[in-house]
Amino acid sequence: MEKSKLHLIDFYAEWCGPCKFVTKIVDKIADELREIKVERINVDQHRNLIKTLNITSVPTLILYKNNQELGRKEGFIFKEALIEWINSYL
Question: Residue 48 domain-assigned?
Answer without folding.
Answer: yes
